[in-house]
Design goal:
This protein has seven helices and 41 strands. β31 and β32 form a beta hairpin. The strands form seven sheets. It has a 24-stranded antiparallel β-sheet that branches. Helices cover 9% and strands 55% of the residues. It has one domain: Maltoporin, Chain A, CATH 2.40.170.
Length: 761
């Protein structure tokens, strides 16, 4: 094994060797990239020299273009997304500094970590908007978008303008507009693991007033990780997406845009490796199915003094998951979860027009979401023996218990309606070289949980003597728990920013802002609550009740940020640097309480803080050569966190990488005016770590690096790209969890190679 993927504090020698080896790899990666640059830069500068330019995507929700200078953001345009193979937010990991989305075993788990804060389950820490549609459920974040025009990753709290669950930032994705591009785009890619990516897009501007675009995306993969129990790959996947975008401009100052899409995801299983054996082996069927529908209507009207924007959306999500929750070859227990969710949102924004010293914005937002979920847990033979009857039988061996069947069900049904209302505003004032901006949001949210849980089973108590074993009693278990819980949250979310314009190409900024992530309910713990009720029927004391374990509080933060943007060499070089301090209260963490078997909960840590910095550089020093580099450092620790059994104060916050690093170089060599016109070479490295896996900091993933490269042959309307990812086959881990006190890891993908053909008609 060439890289230590998970270590303990006692593994000092192995850890040292792994770090040394990884350091050598890093030196090799940068040597390759840097050595390539002088060779590639031998091309001559012609009349077609490309320069960098500022692009502002968040125009709807900013008081002025200048206010965009106060954001720490990374912008990925269409050409960059195509060159790096970015089809989703997950693919942008580490390209934006301090931005990390681990590659978990399921697309249902879209966990995003920014600057030391994040979330594995329930409420997200980063918002996502697709063509202005604010996604209400992070379970729907991870899907492929073949027609990305721009992907904007804004780091730091954006709660004032975007509201709840954006304390880590916002991801804004805009798809290709038929007013900007016309024609047909066809793409077909194939790689090892029998991976297939096929896309077709049609864009037509039928008149000066109307345009439409339609895309179809299909993805297939046979997987890379084998389940040793049945000999089949456990990470198979099929997915598809259909989208339709229409833009109508009935008048010069009015634009009506509708973006609709439907996504289907079918996954075969989960590549969770048992740490004790180093292999994947589970016996029960695992799969995940998702069908989602998004439809968003954006209406913009530019009047003489103000502009008005209305964003309306409907969202539907249908999830179906079966999970071997113990991930072992023995029959312990299986979770089945079926969920349907309907949601609507409405955002209304009015802002001033024109180049005035005072600019303002005012808005109102509302959403309604209704979720219905059926999530039974089926206990099987080994689970019954080890988790249910073992303890009472040890306590009273004279009267042992035997279950009357090989399985029983802990049933849980939920109905969760929620709504939110908000009013917000922002004002900017230009004073000489300064731009002062102040904003405030009043946010209200109400959520309700209606639960209906039951368990109907039976067992037999025997009486054992020295010479016999006789039936003592038959016992029936009929547990039915039904009730309702509700929570309301009210928050004031202010923001203050100052921009100092040194020159037209140099800005400094400082931000003070409040972040907010809503509270909620631990629905995944109801099976454990039922199990505790069942054990209580058998004479074992309950460890907790519904009221003690189900709810969790909102997470809040104050973010202090300073930074700057500098553009040099007539736009050929752009740099951004930011330093931040985050004071976080009641940070939401996924934990596994003592005594739980099937459940995990969201709990609140008392206080934590995160300190860090980030820098990014984009440059085109010569014609057709592009260099990108970004680095982020985060030091996130608990200041006050005691779960009643352990004191984690001073420990690092788990799952958040301390370092993220990305560097890439791409050069297009001009061949001529014939059929083959350009050859493009590119090389990149993506790095992350150290990542602690638990609050005790006893397990972690070392700093690791992935080397990627490609070569692209371009004709006038077609191209062939040969690509390779994780060329050296670096072994690393992306996820860690515990089930019935057993530890499991999700391994990162191995070396991948393939080719992609693209045709533009």
């Amino acid at each position: 094994m060439n890289n230590l993927k998970i270590t303990t504090n006692s593994d000092c020698l192995l850890q040292k060797n792994a770090i040394t080896l990884q350091t050598k790899k890093m030196r090799l990666y940068f040597a390759i990239i840097l050595a390539t640059i002088p060779f590639l830069s031998k091309g001559s500068i012609g009349s077609d020299t490309l320069f960098l330019k500022e692009i502002n995507v968040t125009a709807i929700k900013s008081t002025a273009t200048e206010s965009d200078k106060a954001r720490a953001k990374t912008l990925i345009d269409r050409s960059t997304a195509e060159r790096l193979g970015i089809l989703s937010a997950k693919d942008a990991t580490a390209i934006a500094p301090n931005f990390y989305i681990p590659d978990y075993g399921s697309r249902i788990t879209s966990s995003i970590y920014v600057r030391g804060i994040g979330a594995r389950i329930d409420q997200p820490v980063v918002g996502m908007n697709i063509d202005n549609i604010p996604l209400l459920n992070k379970d729907n974040y991870d899907f492929d978008i073949s027609d990305i025009e721009t992907m904007e990753i804004i780091r730091g709290p954006q709660s004032t303008l975007y509201g709840r669950n954006t304390m880590g930032g916002v991801i804004n994705v805009q798809t290709i507009s038929p007013f900007d591009y016309q024609g047909t785009r066809i793409s077909l890619g194939y790689g090892n693991g029998n991976s297939i990516n096929a896309n077709i897009g049609y864009y037509n501007k039928t008149s000066e007033q109307f345009g439409l675009g339609a895309t179809i995306t299909y993805r297939h993969g046979s997987g890379f990780f084998k389940n040793n129990f049945n000999g089949e790959n456990c990470d198979k996947e099929n997915s598809g997406r259909i989208s339709l975008k229409t833009i109508w401009k009935p008048k010069e100052n009015i634009a009506i845009e509708n973006a609709a899409s439907s996504t289907i995801v079918h996954q075969g299983g989960y590549a969770y490796e048992y740490v004790k054996t180093g292999g994947i082996a589970y016996n029960d069927t695992c799969f995940y199915r998702r069908t989602s529908i998004l439809d968003g209507l954006t209406i913009k009207a530019n009047l003489e003094d103000v502009s008005i924007s209305s964003i309306t959306s409907y969202q539907f999500l249908n999830d179906n998951m079966t999970l071997d929750q113990d991930f072992l070859p023995q029959p312990y227990f299986t979770l089945t979860q079926k969920k349907k969710e309907h949601g609507i949102t409405q955002d209304l924004i009015v802002k001033s027009n024109g180049n005035k010293k005072i600019k303002w914005l005012a808005g109102a937002f509302a959403f309604f979401k209704r979720t219905e979920m059926d999530a039974p847990v089926t206990f099987k033979q080994t689970g019954i023996e080890e988790l249910i009857i073992k303890k009472p039988n040890e306590m009273n061996p004279i009267y042992p218990i035997e279950w009357d069947s090989n399985s029983f069900v802990l049933g849980s049904k939920f109905r969760m309606p929620s709504y939110g209302l908000a009013a917000y505003g922002e004002i900017s004032i230009d004073i000489d070289k300064f731009t002062l901006t102040a904003g405030l949001r009043i946010d209200h949210e109400h959520t309700k949980l209606n639960y209906d849980s039951d368990c109907n089973t039976n067992y037999t108590i025997f009486h054992v003597t020295e010479n016999s074993k006789e039936i003592y009693k038959h016992k029936e278990i009929n547990i039915h728990t039904k009730g309702s819980l509700s929570k309301s949250f009210n928050e004031l979310l202010p923001k203050i920013s100052v921009i100092y314009k040194i020159k037209s190409n140099c800005h400094l900024f400082a931000n003070l802002s409040k972040g907010y992530k809503a509270g909620g309910f631990n629905t995944q713990m109801f099976s454990d609550v039922l199990q505790q009720e069942l054990m209580n029927e058998m004479g074992i004391d309950k460890l907790y009740t519904i009221n003690e374990i189900i709810g969790y509080k909102p997470e809040k933060s104050w973010n202090y940020e300073i930074g700057g943007h500098i553009t040099l060499a007539d736009g050929k070089i752009q740099t951004e640097a930011t330093a931040f301090y985050i004071d976080c209260r009641d940070q939401q963490l996924t934990v596994f309480p003592e005594g739980t078997t099937t459940g995990r909960i969201m709990a609140n840590a008392g206080k934590s803080r995160s300190i860090g910095a980030e820098i990014s550089v984009t440059a085109r020093p010569v014609n057709r050569l592009t260099i990108n580099a970004s680095y982020g450092y985060t030091n996130a620790k608990f200041i006050n966190f005691n779960d009643g059994q352990n004191n984690y104060s001073g420990k690092f916050v788990p799952y958040a990488p301390m370092n993220t690093l990305n560097a890439s170089a791409a050069y297009s060599l001009r061949i001529g005016d014939g059929y083959l016109r350009y050859i493009t070479f590119d090389a990149s490295t993506t790095c992350a770590g150290k990542i602690y896996w638990n609050e005790k900091n006893s397990l972690h993933q070392n700093f690791y690096a992935l080397l990627n490269a490609g070569i692209k042959l371009s004709a006038e309307k077609a191209s062939l790209q040969i690509w390779a990812k994780n060329i050296t086959g670096t072994q690393y881990s992306t996820f860690y969890f515990v089930s019935i006190k057993h530890e499991f890891l999700q391994r990162g993908k191995p070396a991948r190679f393939g080719a992609t053909i693209k045709i533009n008609i």
